């Protein structure tokens, strides 16, 4: 069980490092893309690269903290972040897990708000 948690955390860290590395590679091309977009009056993206990376970092941090929390059974919790707003979906075995997951995520730097859509499915339930 400990090895599984370590593996999950390692994969999250690797994802964040990959996102940061990808941004470093695309930053040099972003200025020429902005110049091209400005000359033809179009927008390259409705979301800035910095915002996308920040959202990815928030998601990774939330997942890591939920997995590392001893008082939350979060193996079936999914996290998505957009513009600093975090959505928690999936299921937890107890109402206390649902509440604690929200508290953990709300405490992460950069989180604007949390939409807690977790379902409480007690052990032995057929859902």
From TrEMBL:
List residues of the BON domain.
Answer: 54-122
> Which intervals of the chain are annotated as region Disordered?
25-52
Keywords, A to Z?
Answer: Signal
The name on file for this protein is BON domain-containing protein
**Could you tell me which InterPro entries the record lists for this protein?**
BON_dom, Lipoprotein_DolP
Biased region (Low complexity) positions are 25-48
Q: Which residues form the signal peptide?
A: 1-24
């Amino acid at each position: 069980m400990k090895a599984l948690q370590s593996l999950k955390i390692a994969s999250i860290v690797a994802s964040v490092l990959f996102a940061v590395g990808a941004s470093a590679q695309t930053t040099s091309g972003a200025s020429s893309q902005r110049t091209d977009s400005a000359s033809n009056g179009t927008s390259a993206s409705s979301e800035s690269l910095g915002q996308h990376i920040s959202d990815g970092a928030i998601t990774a941090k939330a997942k890591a903290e939920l997995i590392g929390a001893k008082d939350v059974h979060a193996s079936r919790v999914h996290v998505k972040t957009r513009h600093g707003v975090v959505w928690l979906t999936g299921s937890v075995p107890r109402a206390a897990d649902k509440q604690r997951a929200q508290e953990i995520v709300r405490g992460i730097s950069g989180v604007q708000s949390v939409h807690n859509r977790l379902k409480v499915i007690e052990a032995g339930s057929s859902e």
